[in-house]
Amino acid sequence: AQRVTQPEKLLSVFKGAPVELKCNYSYSGSPELFWYVQYSRQRLQLLLRHISRESIKGFTADLNKGETSFHLKKPFAQEEDSAMYYCALSNAGGTSYGKLTFGQGTILTVHP
Amino acid sequence: EAGVAQSPRYKIIEKRQSVAFWCNPISGHATLYWYQQILGQGPKLLIQFQNNGVVDDSQLPKDRFSAERLKGVDSTLKIQPAKLEDSAVYLCASRQKRDSYEQYFGPGTRLTVT
Question: What is d(CA A53, CA A48) in angstroms, rounded to the nearest whole number?
Fold first, then answer.
């Protein structure tokens, strides 16, 4: 069974400090990993995808298959980064392609 | 383009009553998902449609939950009868086609069962 674990429910940092949101997964095949974000009073939306290897809003995430991790990082946090962040895993094939398994979420608060 | 629409946004019912939620996906999106998000948890997939066919309903409590997607566009999710533990936000999401990856979420319906 696939599982996503985000060990921190809450994470607080000050503006300008580095931030790392942890995500670990278990999956028997080759997973696709995503980070979704929900800002206050907004919809859940895709932040980034591991395959694209992009930096979005200064955030990056590297898939480490050996440690089964997909941590989200940003070197200098901004107040507008305050939000709920979800790590999610998708099965890459089969009839349920695209089915997402979400972690419990981490609330990031960036203080001024 | 217009986003995924859901209604109602909020619903309060008593246990053992029935309730229905409606979702209108982004135009042209073939895949539609219903998720249940209990407070403090991440969204959990209930059912996945590809056009008007069910692809995955393995986590749908079929004794009380039902869903349909007539004509492969709008979808309704029904709970009958509701239990206290059904209190949650019900999210609808859609995806354009099989080889696209991004899911677009609606605003959700917050259900409170008293």
Answer: 8
CB-nearest partner of B42 from A49, A86, A99: A86
- Contact: A45, B105; criterion CB under 8 Å: yes
CB B50 within 8 A of CB B71: no
pLDDT in tens, chain A (112 residues): 789 999 999 999 999 999 999 999 998 877 889 999 999 999 999 999 887 778 889 999 988 989 999 999 999 999 999 999 999 998 766 555 678 999 999 999 999 9
Distance (Å) from the alpha carbon of B101 to chain A's nearest alpha carbon: 7
Which letter does DSSP use for residue B63 in this model?
T
C-alpha A78/C-alpha B77 separation (Å) is 39
Of A43, A95, A105, the CB nearest to B55: A95
Residue B45: its H or E element = strand B44-50
Cross-chain Cβ contact A104/B42 below 8 Å = yes
Place of tokens 């229905």: B20
Instruction: Evaluate whether A44 touches A26 at the Cβ level (below 8 Å).
Output: no
